[in-house]
Design a protein that fits this description.
The chain has 536 residues and is of the alpha+beta class. The chain is built from 15 helices and 23 strands. It has 2 domains: 330 residues, Spore Coat Polysaccharide Biosynthesis Protein SpsA, Chain A (Alpha-Beta Complex), CATH 3.90.550; 75 residues, no CATH class. Helix 1 packs antiparallel against helix 3 and helix 2 crosses helix 8.
């Protein structure tokens, strides 16, 4: 592992690369000023009040989702300070200090890392970032639903020169020898309304011997000031962390994204995208406005992205009036087993106006949520050579922790598929299975674990699959898996999925299920839902 002074030095072992930090802020002064203002009662966070007033505050914020400023500090009369208890004031003061002082945190500043065994080659040890530890303990292994206060304890913010506190965003990218990865990083920062609140974590699986450049690396020659500082990869180098891995150690998206989840450091929101994605102008303000419009702390915006061709105008704004929704999923089998696989998803104008729309499934290519989603439901460390199974793993585990999936009302980024004018170049990009001969047999074992964890292979004895660390990578107890299967027409014994699910999801699900959103905004209460989809 190499950290620090010469981060772009070649290495034959997995290591963390981080761009040297030049970020200096006088936190003691900022801390003193803020504490004084809190004491006077001049500033008030909407999270100071109880759960019900939190919901009202979110509703007010949602009504202004299209405004140019998304702030979490509001001007308030000093006299109203007397309505808050001493305990509430202390809690809010602590939360405010923690949020503002903790961005950007970076793996570059950490001296201790964790040694783990490579999931496909147990004789190889890897040094990886430790998981971020929340400021307060969350329910262990999803044994119960988080309280709203527990959920709101997670999430840093950044105070800009305009005096507004902005919620931060962590963007995780797993890249395998992808020439478009640097373009994706540039798009993230160049088109953000407030790039100062964005931090990117890249898991870069590459072959340095072939001359491939690191995804998040500055221009050749480094950042030397002057014009170089206008280059996005220089200007925001303190907000980019890269973990580099030799391509021969790549064993699919699950393990790469597991390492990516370890790079999360308490940001307010967490986003996952592929390495070949183009963002719309002001995407951060747009997507935050959309997730707030759900009024659901447990919301996860997720979908298969539309193709980038013909989707953007000359100024970077979307030209599409449609968006995909996750519902078209059927059983499929290969040498690893039989499992549910997402197919091409229907794309149409949203049937719900003013809010994202509820859907049953999670998609790996785009996911946007509160940061606690990746804390509670991280990628499983023990799934080498799995490609067609990660989405069932994360989606169903997320369901059992109480999370709800939504399709965006409008797209905030687009995917470069190997079609049309992009086909020639995209078809030349290598894939992790080019080294599959090194990992024969491990994929089937991993698939048994994927299906076993989510109880999708009842015909396989539980003793036949690996149960390691299920307290970290297992299912929660907030909702039962059988509830999901019965609600959405899935028969795990006969390996059948209802073919009329999309019709239900597109036209009925949101109206029926959104009525059962808890009053405190902590997810849809499936205990009150008796609906079961039947094949017509």
């Amino acid at each position: 592992m190499i950290i620090g002074t010469n981060p772009y030095k070649s290495s034959k072992s997995p290591f963390i690369k981080a761009v040297p930090s030049n970020f200096f802020i006088s936190f003691p002064i900022l801390y003193t000023i803020l504490c004084y203002l809190i004491y006077l009662g001049l500033f008030h966070s909407p999270y100071l009040s109880n759960a019900n007033s939190n919901a009202n505050a979110n509703a007010n914020a949602n009504s202004n989702a299209n405004s140019n400023v998304i702030a979490s500090i509001n001007i308030k009369s000093p006299s109203s300070l007397f309505h808050a208890s001493k305990e509430e004031m202390t809690k809010e003061k602590s939360r405010m200090e923690r949020r503002i002082n903790n961005f950007p945190l970076s793996i570059r500043n950490e001296n201790e890392h964790e040694e783990i065994k490579h999931p496909g080659k147990t004789d190889v040890s890897m040094s990886v970032p430790k998981f971020w530890v929340p400021p307060i303990s969350l329910p262990h292994a999803g044994e119960r639903l988080m309280t709203r206060d527990e959920a709101l304890s997670i999430g840093s913010t950044v105070l800009k020169d305009d005096g507004v506190e902005y919620e931060t965003v962590f963007v995780m990218i797993a890249s395998y020898r992808d020439y478009q990865c640097p373009e994706t990083v540039r798009s993230i920062f160049e088109r953000a309304k407030h790039p100062e609140r964005v931090r990117v974590g890249i898991v870069d699986q590459m072959d340095e011997a072939s001359g491939e450049l690191p995804c998040g690396a500055p221009p050749v020659g480094g950042c030397r000031g002057g014009e170089d500082e206008q280059n996005v990869l220089c200007k925001y180098r303190n907000q980019i962390d890269t973990y580099e891995m030799e391509d021969e150690l790549a064993v699919g998206p699950c393990f790469a994204r597991h390492v990516g989840n370890r790079m999360y450091r308490g940001e307010y929101y967490a986003m996952q995208v592929d390495a070949h994605v183009t963002f719309v102008q002001d995407w951060d303000e747009d997507v935050i406005g959309q997730i707030k419009a759900t009024k659901n702390e447990m919301a996860v915006l997720t979908t298969y992205l539309s193709d980038v061709q013909g989707s953007l105008d000359a100024n970077g704004y979307s030209t599409r009036k449609t968006r995909p929704i996750m519902c078209n999923t059927q059983y499929e089998g290969n040498q690893q087993g039989t499992f549910l696989r997402h197919n091409s998803q229907p794309e149409a104008p949203s049937m719900v106006k003013g809010s994202p729309q509820l859907e049953p499934y999670w998609a790996a290519g785009f996911s946007f949520s509160r940061g606690h989603f990746v804390v509670n439901v991280p990628y499983d460390q023990y799934l080498p050579m799995i490609f067609l199974g990660e989405e069932m793993s994360i989606g169903l585990r997320g369901f059992t922790y109480g999370y709800d999936m939504y399709a965006n009302e409008k797209s905030i980024c687009f995917h470069s598929y190997a079609i049309g004018e992009n086909a020639k170049k995209r078809n030349k990009v290598k894939h992790f299975w080019e080294h599959s001969n090194m990992y024969k047999g491990v994929g089937k074992k991993a698939m048994n674990r994927v299906l076993g964890v989510v109880k999708m292979n009842p015909e396989v004895p539980e003793s036949a699959w690996d149960h390691t660390d299920l307290d970290k990578y297992g299912v929660g107890k907030v909702r039962d898996l059988q509830k999901f299967y019965k609600t959405f027409g899935i028969d795990v014994v006969k390996k059948r999925a209802a073919t009329n699910l999309c019709q239900f999801v597109q036209y009925q699900m949101h109206g029926l299920f959104s009525e059962h959103l808890r009053d405190d905004g902590m997810g849809v209460n499936y205990d009150n839902i008796s609906f079961e989809l039947k094949e017509k």
